[in-house]
Amino acid sequence: MDTTYKIVKFQIQNVFRSLWLIVYAIGLFLTTTLIIYFTNDSSKVAISLLSIVLILNPLISIFFGGIYVYNSREFIELVLTQPIERSSLFFGLFLGLLVPFVLVSIVGMGVPLFLSSIVDIPLSLNILAMGILVQSIFVSLGIFVTVSFPDKPLGLGIAFLVWLGLCWIYDGIILFISFAFQDYPLEKFLLFLTILNPIDLARITILTKLDTAAMLGVTGAIFKAFLEGSLGNFIAFFMISLWIFLPLIFSYRKFIKKDF
Amino acid sequence: MIDLKNVSKNYGKIRALNDVTLSFERNKITAIVGPNGSGKTTLIKSILGLVKIDKGEIFFDGLNTSKSIDYRNRIGYMPQIARYPENLRVKEVIELIMSLRNIDDFNAPKDLISLFKLQPYLDKFIRNLSGGTVQKISAVIAMMFNSDVYILDEPTAGLDPIAVVELKNLIRERSNQGSTFLIVSHLLSEIETYAERLVFMLNGKILIDDGIQSFIQITGKENLEQSIIYLLKEQNYFLEYNGYNL
């Protein structure tokens, strides 16, 4: 534990001095502030922020997380020649990356959101919490990719594909299915598909909490009923946790046996 | 001190270490030599626990290295290529490695820092340093704990001539005080001046394990470089004739 703490501490120090993280934080702060001041409707602000939380943040988490781990390769080697357990370094790496990302979200998005009070506090907290969970998922996926593919260009390409798949292609497939089979009762199947993808799950969880949720139609009503029930809540939470911990567990097992 | 017993390691189809049995005795300087891809780095990385061996066992002072991590407290390691976190200061990197061994006193490596003239760089960020300066930091990190064993991978590559002399003197000094050295190097003329024992590797096997001077004598050549070239050209005949491993 003590060693993990030391590694997290030094990593936070290192990551916080990175130019890209500072630019990201400032960019996030400015974008959130602009969205808030140019939009007077709470639902519209929430939906715009959702795009950042569910598309931009995952890309930055998986991509910069991946680059960071690849660039740390030689240093990871040196640290592993010290009398420390591999598990301490592994969790130190994960937390040392996640904590700066989470802090950037809180400062870049949370602060302007809470200062403006255009979006009520429970919904703001919901968006922020979803954002942090999605960041955790993509940092975890980023580490999985870097541990699985020693080759940096290949690994980063795969990281990009993972992001593309979860954030865009998956939605395209859902859209295609709902058009192609629009004559059939697809609601339950679509709900099932939505639950499988953490991005869709996070999005729909927030959307059903908005005032405009009533306009989402029959499918929307079914989703809302499901996600507001305790079973739905549990399943949503379980699926998101699974997306964080499964890649992490697989990466951990690889990392422990890996040759450096 | 360090004993390898029937150690094998494959990377896919490549045999990096092929049933290697080898011992490193206390306070000797051993040079590990061989062409690229002969298994030198895999050998030292196996000892350090960076590479997980497929077969065999490695003992450090009689204790199996796969069972504990404590033995690494007694090893100083200098990697061939070092890259430190770009946004940390030199001082912070050294402090981090010290803190991983639970040493808080930053004065400990003071002498080494002045030996390699690193004082002006202590507060500089790693990203602003030249390759040679980074290599000096590696030398300080490897040597700062007064270890029983030092494992150095191409230690003088990239260092300026003054730093090379200082490092060689330091190696001799620590060896006289009882430390064991394992040095991987391609600079045959250089290792001849300070190493006592030669381990020559080829295709994951130990071909030669002998005193440097006695090896040169056997080949009848002028120096280590000539002897190694002779060995590589006349490999089979020479090894068989002189009773080395085949």
Characteristics:
heterodimer; A: 260 residues; mainly alpha; 11 helices; 0% strand; globular; B: 246 residues; alpha/beta; six-stranded mixed β-sheet; four-stranded antiparallel β-sheet; 9 helices; 10 strands; 25% strand
Architecture blueprint of SSEs:
The complex is a heterodimer of chains A (260) and B (246).
Chain A: H1 2-16, H2 19-38, H3 42-71, H4 73-80, H5 86-116, H6 121-148, H7 152-180, H8 187-196, H9 198-207, H10 217-228, H11 230-257
Chain B: E1 2-11, E2 14-24, E3 29-33, H1 40-48, E4 55-60, E5 63-64, E6 75-78, H2 90-100, H3 110-115, H4 131-143, E7 149-153, H5 161-176, E8 180-184, H6 188-194, E9 197-202, E10 205-211, H7 212-219, H8 224-233, H9 235-242
Parallel strand pairs in B: 3-8, 3-9, 6-7, 7-8
Antiparallel strand pairs in B: 1-2, 1-4, 4-5, 9-10
Number of helices of chain B: 9
> SSE order of chain B, as H and E?
EEEHEEEHHHEHEHEEHHH
C-alpha-based Rg of chain B, rounded: 19 Å
Regions of chain A with pLDDT < 50 over 5+ consecutive residues? none
- Overall helicity of chain A: over 70%
The pair of chains with the biggest contact is: A-B, 28 and 31 residues
Q: Report on the biggest sheet of chain A.
A: none
Taken as a percent bin, the fraction of beta residues of chain B is: 15-25%
Uncertain runs of chain B with pLDDT below 50, 5 residues or more? none
Number of beta-strand segments of chain A: 0
Q: What does the average pLDDT of chain A come to?
A: 91
Instruction: Kindly report the spatial arrangement of strands forming the biggest sheet of chain B.
Output: 6-7-8-3-9-10
User: Strand-residue fraction of chain A?
Assistant: under 5%
Give the ordered list of helices and strands of chain A.
Answer: HHHHHHHHHHH
